[in-house]
Amino acid sequence: CSCFVQAGDTSIGWALGYMLSLSSLLPEERIGLRKALQKMFAGLPELGISNGEDLKETLTNCTEPLKAIDQFQTENGILLPTLQSALPFLDLHGTPRLEFHQSVFDELRDKLMERVATIAEGKDEDRYGKLEELLEKSFPLVKMPSIQPVVMQVLKHLPKVPEKKLKLVMADKELYKVCAVEVKRQIWQDNQALFGDEVSPLLKQYIVEKEAALFSSDLSVLHNFFSPSPKARRQGEVVLKLTQMIGKNVKLYDMVLQFLRTLFLRTRNVHYCTLRAELLMSLHDLDISEICSVDPCHKFTWCLDACIRERFVDAKRARELQGFLDGVKKGQEQVLGDLSMILCDPFASNTLVLSTVRNLQELLSQDALPRDSPDLMLLLRMLSLGQGAWDMIDSQVFKEPRLELEVVTRFLPAMLSVVVDDYTFTVEQKLPNEEKTSLSYPTALPDAFNKYLQENRVACEMGLYYALHIAKQRNKNALQRLLPALVETYNDMAFGDIFLHLLTGHLTLLSDEFGTEEFCSAVFDGFLLTSFSSKENVHRHTLRLLLHLYQKVLPSCMETLVKTLEPPKQVGKLLCRMKPIPKDIPLALQ
């Protein structure tokens, strides 16, 4: 044991020395794995500890085997004089020596691991030097299962593991698998490909979970894709695992951000933007200042996260967000790429557009023009920046996209005129019969509204959310007027999964209206069925809606829809997994 007392801490050296001595008493033939055990115990002689091979050689060359065995046990057993006289009592109770030594060994190992943690958490200036010495002496036995936890404990508590040891751990799959994440971080920071292999399955899992939420069979206005709070979303398995993998390592954080940018560019999938914001805020929750303080997007994301939580951008936070955007200095424009990704997050876009619709309603009640509202102009500015995230990162031209002035001067007034038309008709219907006019509900939309719905991303986003707004108000007339215009939108945004997920949920509020041919025709023939054959996702969302409302739909329309929408077998199986099928559901929807 004396060689281990040199480790710088007498109790640690004593414990490890005894553990190694006791390990030589384990019989090699006990489980029939002689070669494996020989490999495990190969490091003992290197440390001056006898092993099974030494005992074999001793027995081969001795003339009195019993004396040789007794001497081997004495030299390698627990060197306490008072214990020797007590051991026969264990024999009388039928307790094998192996069981006794194993229990002592386990106790020593637990105490040693506790001691390693205590030293690492202490304030001794030489604490890491002690651990490095202990690592140097114990590492040759890292393959020994009984000693391995101790070695891994030492590695875990070293802020900088010697490079040679890291390479040995990385080269051995078994060691790499069992080592602590603190050790893996030190390996990953210099091996981007290996880190990418670890992160990739998590990123795929994240996207699968988001898409599963969008295609959930549970349709509701109150419980939809955007219902979970930001903090609740950050408790997801993937975000927690990535946060743990990164720890306080800025280099690993930068790698993950680069992975997310690359995947966003490759797939245009906006859920990667969500993960970018969630990851930063998860580190913020844990107060990881080493990373938050160096990410220039931290305060902006923090403020925006509060807005998402409230589902509204109030005047105070609007000024804060504007301050961050205006504060981007010359030469630091690259930060706009990350800010645009954060604003491209669907949860951020949802909050911005809801705030825009609310702002427009206030302007309407005040007889004010959209262009005269600074808050509205900021919301449109952020929407435009988020919508242009992919183009900015792809082109590497970090400059805020200019919002078309005509969106403010022509599109928004046109949209407000639609609101006024609807309000006027509603008031007209409430008048006494003698005061009513022959006013009929308008069916056409202003040309400017249709034009910008097709040609401008920001205008299209606002137009889609206006459709959701009137559906939430159960305004059948306004919805029937608007749906035909959604057939042709900018980049087919009306047929995106997020909008269709929300629309199908909102349509459940109008479930009784599906009993009329007029409304069924407007929803299905006039909108959904115009592209279901070319877009599988539209087909699936239509089936989700019917799966929820089939008992309300006009029977003649339902019969036609069943024939038209009869899905391929794989979609039918998907629906079976989504929700138990009621007995009375039409066969074609099963």
TrEMBL record:
GO terms for cellular component: NELF complex. One of its GO terms (biological process) is negative regulation of transcription elongation by RNA polymerase II. InterPro entries: COBRA1 (IPR010405). Pfam families: COBRA1 (PF06209). PANTHER family: NEGATIVE ELONGATION FACTOR B, NEGATIVE ELONGATION FACTOR COMPLEX MEMBER B. This is Negative elongation factor complex member B. The gene is NELFB.
